[in-house]
Each structure stands twice: as structure tokens, then as C-alpha cells.
């Protein structure tokens, strides 16, 4: 949904990337910093009820993480390990956000049903990402879905931040909307892979193999 905005965002981040290229900072350093900072902020601030502060911290580290791609392109250091590290650590940050808010909802927020919705968002987000990774591991393009990571974080962090400012019902609405969109996106990716493999001979060597 937000793919059209990425070229513009890339142009905004490029000057920062050029400045970082003149320092010893590497893209992988930014990747690790973004994930660790996001996870630390989410798991320390959200469970203690500091929702707006946690939202701001996580947003800041999301932007830090997004710089790794710009820096890698400038330095000419894009590679498979960098892509693997970025994708893997993205899951760490995302899990921390929804895990942290689920802890608060189950304790200080006194809303265990909504905590379960937050956990559903966590699991559904992982499934959406896994479906794409597994499909691409089989040589199938699976770049579809109405709620990719950018959209999921935008909805989740916006709802959390507004709830921290005292806006009523926004967290419930945001998490429920995110849960539905994540489930739809997972279904879209499963359907895309099913369509791509329709007519292929059954019982391929990869069928039933252990997950990676």
C-alpha cells in the first residue's frame, strides 16, 4: 500500500546516508542498532504504560533501521547477508512492539481480550513475513498483500501513540484493524503461492520439508 512513498522516502534519507558514508558506520551496524533500540524501547516503555514515549522511541529507531539500505547503496555494500540480517532483525523489533503492548494490556491496561488481539497481530505478522520468505525460498515471487511491514508498523505505532495521548478507543480499533488486515495479507500470500504452483506436478522434493 505504501510502496509508492518509498522512492520519496529514499530521497529524503539519501543525504543522511551520504553523511554516514563518511564515517566508520556500516549498514549492518545501523541494522543492529535499529533492532536493539526498538526492542529495548518497546519492552521497557510499553509494559510500564509509557505508550507515547515508547511510540516515539520505536519510531526513531525504525527510521534508523531504514537508513541501512540507503547507506549500503551509497557504499556499494549491498549483499545477501545484509538482506538476511535486516529481515531477521525486523522480526525482533516487530515482536517486541506487539509483545510489549500485549504485556501492558494484560497487566496495567486491564484488558486481556485486547492483549490476545495484540498477540494475534504479533503471530500474524510473523506468518506474513514467513510466507513470503518461504515462497521466495522455493523460487516463487510473493510480493503481495495489503498490509506489509511498513503498513503494520504504521497502524500499530500510531494507535499506541494516540492511546498514550489519551485518545479513547483508538488502541482497540487499531489492533482489531491490524489483526484483520494481517490475516487478509497472509491469506493473499497463501493464495498467490497456490496460484503460482497450480498445475505443477504434485509431491515435489520440497513438499513437507522442515521449515527454515
Describe the 3D structure:
This protein is an all-alpha fold. The chain has a single domain, classed as Up-down Bundle (Four Helix Bundle (Hemerythrin (Met), subunit A)), CATH 1.20.120.1760. The protein is 74% helix and 0% strand. The chain contains 7 helices and no strands. Helix 4 packs antiparallel against helix 5.
Please give the CATH architecture.
Answer: Up-down Bundle
Element string (H = helix, E = strand): HHHHHHH
| Overall geometry | flat
Determine the fraction of residues in helical runs and give it as a percent range: over 70%
CATH topology descriptor: Four Helix Bundle (Hemerythrin (Met), subunit A)
Look at the structure and name the CATH superfamily: CDP-alcohol phosphotransferase transmembrane (TM) domain
- Secondary structure tally: strands: 0
| Low-pLDDT ranges | 208-212
Structural class: mainly alpha
The main pleated sheet reads as:
none
Mean pLDDT: 88
The Cα radius of gyration reads 18 Å
In short:
The protein is an all-alpha fold and 212 residues long. 74% of the residues lie in helices and 0% in strands.
What distinguishing features does this structure have?
212 residues; mainly alpha; 7 helices; disordered C terminus
Amino acid at each position: 500500500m505504501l510502496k509508492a512513498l518509498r522512492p520519496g522516502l529514499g530521497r529524503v534519507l539519501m543525504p543522511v546516508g551520504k553523511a554516514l558514508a563518511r564515517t566508520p558506520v556500516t549498514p549492518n551496524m545501523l541494522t543492529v542498532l535499529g533492532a536493539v533500540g526498538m526492542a529495548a524501547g518497546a519492552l521497557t516503555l510499553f509494559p510500564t504504560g509509557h505508550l507515547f514515549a515508547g511510540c516515539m522511541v520505536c519510531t526513531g529507531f525504525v527510521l534508523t533501521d531504514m537508513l541501512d539500505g540507503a547507506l549500503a547503496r551509497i557504499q556499494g555494500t549491498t549483499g545477501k547477508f545484509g538482506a538476511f540480517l535486516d529481515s531477521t532483525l525486523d522480526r525482533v523489533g516487530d515482536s517486541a512492539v506487539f509483545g510489549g503492548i500485549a504485556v501492558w494490556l494484560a497487566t496495567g491496561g486491564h484488558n486481556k481480550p485486547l492483549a490476545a488481539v495484540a498477540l494475534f497481530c504479533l503471530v500474524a505478522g510473523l506468518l506474513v513475513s514467513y510466507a513470503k520468505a518461504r515462497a521466495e525460498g522455493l523460487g516463487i515471487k510473493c510480493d503481495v498483500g495489503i498490509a506489509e511491514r511498513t503498513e503494520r508498523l504504521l497502524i500499530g505505532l500510531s494507535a499506541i501513540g494516540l492511546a498514550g495521548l489519551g485518545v479513547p478507543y483508538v488502541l482497540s480499533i487499531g489492533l482489531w484493524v491490524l489483526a484483520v488486515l494481517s490475516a487478509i495479507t497472509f491469506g493473499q500470500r497463501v493464495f498467490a503461492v497456490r496460484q503460482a504452483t497450480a498445475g505443477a506436478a504434485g509431491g515435489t522434493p520440497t513438499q513437507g520439508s522442515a521449515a527454515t
